[in-house]
Automatic annotation (TrEMBL):
This is LysR family transcriptional regulator. It comes from Streptomyces capoamus. Keywords: Coiled coil, DNA-binding, Transcription, Transcription regulation. PROSITE patterns: HTH_LYSR. It holds the Pfam family LysR_substrate. Residues 95-122 form a coiled coil. It comes from the Bacteria.
Amino acid sequence: MGWIRWWIHPTATGAAASKTDFAGTGSNSVSWLIMDLRELRCFVAVAEEGHFGRAAARLHLAQPPLSRRIRELEADLGCRLFERIPTGARLTPAGEVLLAEARDLLERAERARERVRGAESERVLVLGTVAGAGLDVGAAALSALRRERPGLRVRLREAPITDPSAGLREARVDLALTRLPFDTSGLTVCLLGEEPLVAALPADDPLAGRPRLHVAELAGRPRFRLPPGTDARWRAYWLGAPDDVPGPVVSSPEECLHAVLWEGTVGLLPAGAARRHARPGIAFVPVDGHAPSRIVTARRATTPDPRAEALAQALTAAFARRPPR
């Protein structure tokens, strides 16, 4: 599964080769591109890391071949996907469009691979997560689960921050490790614990040197915001401000950080972001006056799965054993 075919509009031009329709009449000429899944994986890694060097390390590649694959993908598509900036790489508008499509295509390819392999072995249990929810207890939960169910395999799928169900609504995962609040109708939800929030600010902001701040002190400042159409409760919680406050629309943690660093905006993130996303130019200050993030497991109420239940129980136990913070 090293390649895929993308069908392009009949008026598309460029390096794609013209072919006739399947009926052989030639009346509906179309063009197609053959795209390598490895190129798409490289593209997604650079987009999510915002940096070629970090993406290369994540993919266990040297940076020159990674850069070459991105150039080849840009040549195939006939457009630039990244802009080079002092801190790494930023998506162009075309790159933003491709990112959503590439994630979906890679996910579909992986599901196809797992279905084929699962024909002769136990199906992989897919755990969806979003916004870093509960990842610090994942190892302990997995260790306990393997002792109880040694043959069970678990794969982690990290969903974009625009999807609080972590793929559960689209049946892409068997269990979600996520955060409230969002619409939980039709789901069975179990509270695991809470995580306080931090404000992400430019490092030279007057509030950046404070040990703590109240969320009201951010009033009137531009905020990064989630796209319209995102779950309304989820969107309002992370904005933490009136809906008409100005600010850029973001769809990934990297875009949140770029908005702070390059556009001087502020925003709310889970406290764990201070560890996972620490970098020069951005300060993370603990926030009072805003409800903490509630970490939960969620699964579809209508299709109980004993294996998902076992994983949920392992996660609950791991949270209970977690040392107080």
